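Sample intake sheet
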Amino acid sequence: MENRLLGPIFLCIIILFCGVVSGYTLKLISIYSLPVFSSLLLSTFLKNGSLQTLNIFIIILGIWFIVKTSDSLIKQRIKREVANSLTLEKKVFNARYHAQTDYLTNVLNRRGFENELKEQYQNL
């Protein structure tokens, strides 16, 4: 194997490994690694310097695509986690509220009264 093929091969392996470890789908991993695999394929057929420049450009373009796409995926994942966290906080609040109030009268029950008393005592 020629030395100029080692870089793209290692890059392909790193992309596949990172995608699998990160839990991305196979479709998404293949989209990420498509520019690198295509440059690897091109580098096997191209021998002169000007076409190797095209190969390097394809690799750089593929890396840029990976960074841009993964950045948007990370932002989407963060938004999803924040939304899940907010809904979980609402559920916890509702559970505490219902555990401390009487259903019919909406007045604090014994547990709610004791918690409110502790809070007021600590604030003194």
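Comment: The two ends are 78 Å apart (CA to CA). Helices lie at 6-22, 26-45, 49-100, 110-123.
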